[in-house]
Amino acid sequence: MATITRFFQEQQWEFAPQERSPFPGSPATPDHPVGRRIVYGLIGVLIAITAGLGTALIAVNLPYLQGTLGLYQSEIAWLPAVYVMTNVPTGMVLIKYRQQFGLRSFTLIFLGLYCLLAFAHLFTSGFWAAITVRAASGIAGSALTTLSLNYFIQAFPAPQRLAAITLGLSVPQLAIPIARLFSVDLLGFDQWRTLYLFEFGLSLICFAFIALVRLPPSVREKAFEWLDVPTVILFTLFVGLISAALSQGRFEWWTDSPWIGWALAASIPLFGAVFLLEYHRANPVIDMRWLGRSYFLRLMLVGTMARIVLSEQTYGTVGLLNALGYTNDQLFLFSALTVIAAIAGIIVGALAVGPDRLTQPVAFAIGLVAIAAFIDSHATSLTRAPELYATQMVIAFSTTMYIGPAILVGLTQVLADGGKKLTSFIILFASTQSLGGLIGTALLSTYQSWSEKQHSFDIVQHLTMTDPLVAQAVQQGAARFVPTLSDPVLRSAEGAAVLSQRVTIEANVLAYNDVFRLIAILATCTVLFLMLVLLARRRAAGRELRVAATTGRSG
User: Fold this and answer.
1) Which residue from 175, 186, 87, 203 is spatially nearest to 139, judged by alpha carbons?
2) Whole-model pTM above 0.90?
3) 374 vs 228: CA distance, rounded Å
4) CA nearest to 151, candidates 14, 13, 36, 56
5) End-to-end Cα separation, the chain, in angstroms
6) Which residue, 415, 307, 411, is CA-closest to 366?
7) Of 17, 68, 96, which Cα lies nearest the Cα of 188?
8) What are the Cα distances from residue 435, in Å, to 110, 431, 443?
9) Within a 10 A sphere around the Cβ of 464, how many other Cβ atoms?
10) Could you read off the pLDDT of 255-299 as tens digits, one per residue?
11) Of 456, 332, 314, 322, which is closest to residue 373 (Cα–Cα)?
């Protein structure tokens, strides 16, 4: 029993007072030798990618998994949503847990549980088995993301601490582009079990490295209170209802399923209950008074908008290429280039960030998305993947460059206030990023679906058999079936069906162009908002300097 207890305990080191972390529950930062820093950095990369790669593999292969798992489209859409449902609330519990008990035991317990469930899922199939594994993945992913950040911090000396944090927050963003490198041929080995086996193996490797290479100890303090329980339950229900509605709205359609409306309506009083409970607490989990400042409201707005516009690649371009007939195994070079661009974005973000350079990199990254999305909005049915390489590399670059400076914008405010509000800030940021991603996909897919119907209606209105071009297109389509169909009426019907397919493709391309234009507009508005905020802050700082100078002269 004592051996098991020691396994979950943090390693005990002696460290100087200046090496203590400013955040309770975070490891100390002693001066490591170079070799140990390299080991910490490599483990940080492994954990960061593992944190999201399992779910990313599922997300990019949803159409193929739907068939191999035998699920409906609306059922398979629950998998990414369930990940968010458990991932976001876990962040709330995890911060307090590590403050009181340490991060190591939480990570090993839930990562171990996740490994067991993933292994068990290899021998079972079905909807609920997949849901259970995704739920466990969300919990383990939250712990792994935090853990990877701490490993990155250990890998860098104190002067490069901001760069370390930027890397720790940006590397997990590589999960989606890396996941696209895995060809759908992997599913051919043993259908869906191949992906789950890979996910299980990667998690098992992480478990081994975390167990072998421990982080320095952290300062502990009592963190949990009984009133945390209703807050966590209510917040979890709120996130669950929002996630469910956003993930299912485009499949069951927003106005056709009453439960979606009831879920969105019920989420409002749930959030209101969380707000009232936390607002009047002496030691809240989520400090509503602090987060109610205009500074954090702006951060929440910009963070959500950024995740929406960054859906240009994960939903927009990939959706366009799928509509044009591309599959993941045909997009290997496309995915490889986006991975390279994303790595470049991480490096540039780490080099560009600084105490006085936080808003500018965020605005620059979102501005690049606006330009790339506007260029993509000129696609046609003849567009092919190579024509999108440049713009998609720009967006992949922006995605990873944005995330580090974005969170550091708020983290500097947390440090300025003594670090006591870290839990509140992490919950705010995690909510805007996770829910912002769901909102982006739901918004863009809904708009694309509506736009496709409009374009399809407009095109069909102008198609009549009296038009020589239309009649010629039908005849050309019918000519394909001459070797197989002798009946001219059936051939003509097949020719009309071929024309209908062409209409559908054209309408989808036009709809995705509308989506790209919408993203360009939203991104431009976000950049303008950031620039106005930056100018206002500079003017305010200038006024303070002038007042201080006037006061000094008069004194």
Assistant:
1) 87
2) no
3) 46
4) 36
5) 69
6) 307
7) 68
8) 23, 6, 12
9) 9
10) 788 888 888 888 888 888 888 887 777 777 777 776 666 666 777
11) 314
